[in-house]
């Protein structure tokens, strides 16, 4: 199965193509350049794999949370490609994609994205024997002061820019984690591999059902939202 995956929820613009077991990817830390880079990256990985858009079987996308413009860009692009090519879509949590950057030793993972404005996007995941993720509690946005770990932080790996900004204060309050890596971001390769399991199970969405997850209240129009507004006009 050929799956094109997009992940632009953070400073990292990341695109990956999963062709069976073969992975092709492009990733660049490029704040405010995602709209410029994402489609050329997609064409680059397709070319490297010897495929065209017509050879794709599905589109996968990091649905957020993260930057409003980044999340909206990826979801809108996924919707557009899927509509044009008549393909199903799978959405994957950007926090889950980030969590997969942690060491694979079975320990729980806390994914923290700096949400700006003094807040963090955060989720905790347990790891199965096969590396699969299970969300513990809920994905949330809050101030670091209000966050309470779902699992003892000292037993967890922590990943993401939120730790870079607030890690010292969080470690002082909850203890130092098992490991911490602040300079890492959600990557499309993880979106693609998580999505492949869902495609295999038939757990897919029509393009208009692929919706962003912001966690904050903000108007950001997708295909479904634009259609609803047009119907009311």
How would you describe this protein?
- This protein is of the alpha/beta class and 233 residues long.
- It folds into 2 domains: 2-94 and 186-232, 2-Layer Sandwich (Nucleotidyltransferase, domain 5), CATH 3.30.420.40; 102-181, ATPase, nucleotide binding domain (Nucleotidyltransferase, domain 5).
- It is 33% helix and 27% strand.
- It is built from 6 helices and 10 strands.
- The radius of gyration is 17 Å and the shape is globular.
User: How far from one another are the termini?
Assistant: 41 Å
Chain-averaged pLDDT: 94
The proportion of residues in beta strands is: 25-35%
| Helical content (DSSP H or I, runs of 4+) | 25-40%
Name the CATH superfamily assignment of the largest domain. Answer: ATPase, nucleotide binding domain
List the helices and strands and how they pair.
Elements: E1 2-7, E2 12-19, E3 22-29, H1 34-49, E4 58-62, H2 68-85, E5 89-92, H3 94-99, E6 109-116, E7 119-127, E8 133-142, E9 157-159, H4 161-174, E10 179-181, H5 188-201, H6 223-232
Parallel strand pairs: 1-4, 4-5, 6-9, 9-10
Antiparallel strand pairs: 1-2, 2-3, 6-7, 7-8
Helix pairs in contact: 1-2
């Amino acid at each position: 199965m050929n799956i094109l995956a997009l992940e632009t929820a953070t400073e990292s613009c990341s695109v990956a193509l999963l062709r069976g077991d073969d992975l092709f990817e492009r990733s660049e830390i490029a704040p405010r350049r995602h709209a410029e880079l994402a489609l050329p990256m997609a064409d680059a990985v397709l070319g490297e794999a010897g495929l065209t858009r017509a050879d794709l079987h599905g589109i996968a996308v990091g649905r957020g949370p993260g930057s409003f413009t980044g999340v909206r860009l990826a979801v809108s692009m996924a919707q557009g490609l899927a509509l044009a090519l008549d393909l199903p879509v799978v959405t994957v949590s950007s926090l889950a994609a980030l969590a997969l950057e942690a060491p694979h030793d079975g320990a729980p993972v806390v994914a923290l994205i700096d949400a700006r404005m003094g807040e963090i996007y955060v989720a905790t995941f347990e790891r199965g024997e096969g590396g699969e993720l299970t969300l513990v509690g809920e994905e949330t946005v809050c101030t670091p002061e209000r966050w309470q770990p779902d699992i003892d932080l000292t037993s967890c790996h922590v990943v993401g820019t939120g730790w870079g900004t607030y890690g010292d204060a969080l470690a002082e309050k909850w203890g130092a984690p098992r490991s911490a890596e602040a300079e890492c971001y959600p990557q499309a390769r993880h979106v693609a591999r998580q999505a492949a399991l869902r495609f295999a199970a038939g757990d897919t969405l029509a393009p208009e059902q692929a919706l962003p997850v912001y966690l904050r209240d903000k108007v950001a129009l997708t295909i479904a939202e634009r259609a609803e507004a047009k119907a009311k006009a």
